[in-house]
Structures are given as structure tokens and as C-alpha cells.
Amino acid sequence: MNPFLVAALAALCALLLAAGGWLLYRLAARRSERRLAGYQNDLLETHCAEVQNIYTQMRGWRHDYHNHLQTLKGLLSLGRCGEAESYLRQLESDLQSVDTILKTGNLMLDAILNSKLSLAEKGEVAIRAKASVPPSLTVADVDLCVIIGNLLDNALESCRQLPDKGERFLRIYVGRVKEQLYISVQNAVAGRADRRGGGYRSAKGEGHGFGLRRVDALVAQYGGIVNRQDEPGVFATEIFLPL
Question: Exposure of 73 by Cβ count < 10 A (0-12 exposed, 13-18 middle, 19+ buried)?
């Protein structure tokens, strides 16, 4: 065969292979972009729901505050100072209960935890939570919030899928275990968790799960360990992060 023809064919094959590789790369990139866009949209919807929930609570507190002032002014105008004082004591007691659900010692973590737990309460999810963190952490505050935020998002999504609100529960523990930060999240799930390919699928269904992969990547980045277990009606995630 003509050597020039062979060279031309070889060049053409190389060009086709390069073009095919570029096309596969672009298809994979677009698929990844779509998944990331879906994850970001889900995250935006969650944050909007959290902001709306907090706004609703603030409106309720403002309305109550106005009523309390009117009651106190009425009692004082009638000279019923003893009753006004008793009313103030009751208000003080009530205000102590209208506080953040958890105080961990970390302001950023308090914000994300209490935001998620506020949504859980609104969704009539039974909560059992305890959390505290050392003042010094090897994991960045932002990364810790991403880890816990994603775990709680998935846990709440699982709870929402249960039509019987009496079956919904969420258990959270964050604390120091020896030289590690231990994070445990247990939640109700309909039946058993969807396990595929050695891992678990997101409670949001096919095409989701970016948040769980983000958790795994961050834990691996800090040399930590993720352990997930399930049994009928319960899904549990344990995370160990070096301190």
C-alpha cells in the first residue's frame, strides 16, 4: 500500500479518535453540569424553605410581642401591678424556652443545626439532639456545616416520605470521642434504604445524591471515616473526623 495513503489513513484515524474522545468528554461534562445544577437548585429550594420558616416564626413573635405589650399596658393602667409583675415573670420563663434548640459552642454550626431542626419541628419530626464541639477543630467550619447540612437534608427528605407523621424521627449526636469528632445522624425511612453498587442512593431518587458524595469527599479530604447502616425503618450515618 502506498506509504502516503497509510500515513493519511493513520492521521484520519487519530483525528477521529481525538474527536470521539472530545465528544465523550463534552457529554460527560454536560451530564455533570446538569447534576450539579440540579443539586444547586435543590439546595436553593431548601435554603428558601429555611428562610421562609424563620421569617414566619419572626412574624409570629412580633405579633405576640405586640399583644404582650397591650396586656401589660392594660394591667398597669388599672393599677394591677402585681398581676403585671406575674405576667412579666411568665414571659421571662417563656422566652427561655424560645431559644436555639442546640448550642454547640460553634456559631456557624449552631446556625445550620438550628435551621434544619426548625424545619424538622415544622414537619412534625420527633427530634432527639445533642451536640457540642471543641473550640479547636482541624476541619474548617464551612466544611463541617456542609457535611452536617447535607446529612440533615437527606434525613429530613426521608422523613417527609413517611405519610404517618408519628413514625418520623431524627436523632443527632455531635461530640468528641477520644481524639476524634464523632457525628451520628439517625432518621426514619420508609422500608429500607435504597442500596446500590456498594453505596446508598439519595432519598430524593434517581439523579440525586450529589450531597452524599460531597460528604464522602470532604470526610476523605480530612482523613476521616464514613459508616452508613440501615435496617427496616431506620437509616444511620456515623462520621469520624480527626481532631
Answer: exposed
